[in-house]
Structures are given as structure tokens and as C-alpha cells.
Amino acid sequence: MANILIVEDELPMLQGLKDNLEYEGYLVDTATTGSEGLKKLLSNQYHLAILDVMLPEMSGFDICKSARSKGLKTAIIMLTAKSEEIDKVLGLEFGADDYITKPFSLRELLARVRAILRRTGAEELNDEHRIQQIGNLSVNFAGYTAKIKGEDVKLSHKEFEILHFLYAHKNETVDRDNLLDSIWGDNYQPTSRTIDNFIVKLRQKIENDPNDPKVILTVHGIGYKLIDPL
To answer: pTM to 2 decimals?
Structure first.
């Protein structure tokens, strides 16, 4: 399993990145100051470090420069709130492997992370941890693949997205409106009946008895809950 260090002093950003990377199957460690981040980077073995540039005590640039001067080969992505070319150049000159300018999309960050880990061979460590067992269905959300007893099962893109959202909020009641907004957004607003139809299709693949569901439960008047027996 690939091991990632995030050094970020904005706590909501730090927690959001940690949660999403862990959900993708990575082991994640964190630090909130530059000095703490450098200490962890030099004393532990990580496959990747994600460093914010603007940090208390010590900048991300200084962490990167110091780590490289000591011969550390860990892959590094720099996060910067600035878009000036000089920041990008400095980051690369100090030994960063990539940089992302804030604000950035989660999808972009995950794509950059996967690309770097593929180049270093660490991404292969994560493949087996991406398989989630949901009822009868074995799902790889990153690869958009699903199987039942080793046989490929076809899920539509929307089925994957709905199942992914429910799994991300497993054991929690998910409001129908929240689910609709998260999957379809503001540009197109389907009816709640549309969601119900997708749930019926998912239950046919997941449940032993779709008419007596044990995995995706209906919470009457509110929405749905995906039960994780583990």
C-alpha cells in the first residue's frame, strides 16, 4: 500500500485531502508545520509527499530543498496558492516532481498522484486495496470495474457514481436531494424517481434478494443507507 505524507497548515484542506486519499486506498500521514513535515519526511519512508508552499516555520520550498540536499528520493508534489511562473520554476529547481496551483480539483490531484506513483512503481502496491466488496459485488472504483464471483458485471457510469457516493458515506443516511445534487449537479435535475430506478438496478447486482435488501436500505421519507457489515 502506497504511503503518502501531506504537509498542509489549512486544517479543512488537510482533512479533505487525507480523507480522499485514504478512500483511494493510500496510507496517509500528516503534518501542519514545515519543521514537523521535514522531520517526518526524513525519518519515515514515504512513496510521495504533498507539500504546501506557504507553511509555518518553514516553507514547502525549504522542505523540498533540504530533503533533496540530504539525498532523499521521495516523490514530491508542491501545492501553491500562487500562479506566478517563478514559484513553479523554484519548485522544480528545488527538486519537486510536480506542482498544482490552488484552487485545484480533487480529480486533478488524484490523477497527478497516480501518475507519479505509477512512474515510481508504487501505484502497483495499491491495486489490491482498491477492490471493495459490496454485497455480491467486487468493485474497483478507480478502474470502473465490477465483478460477481470473478465474472465481469456491467455498471453504467451513473451506477458507479451513485454506488461510490453511498459507499463513501457507508452506514450513514444519505438524503435523496444530496445524492441528486452530488451526482447530477445543478445543470440537470432528475426526479427522485430517477434515483429510485438506479437503486433498483444496483440492488439486482448487489443483494442476494433485491426484494429484501440487506446492503442498500431505504430510509423512508429521507433516502438510502449503504450498510457495511465490517
So the answer is: 0.57
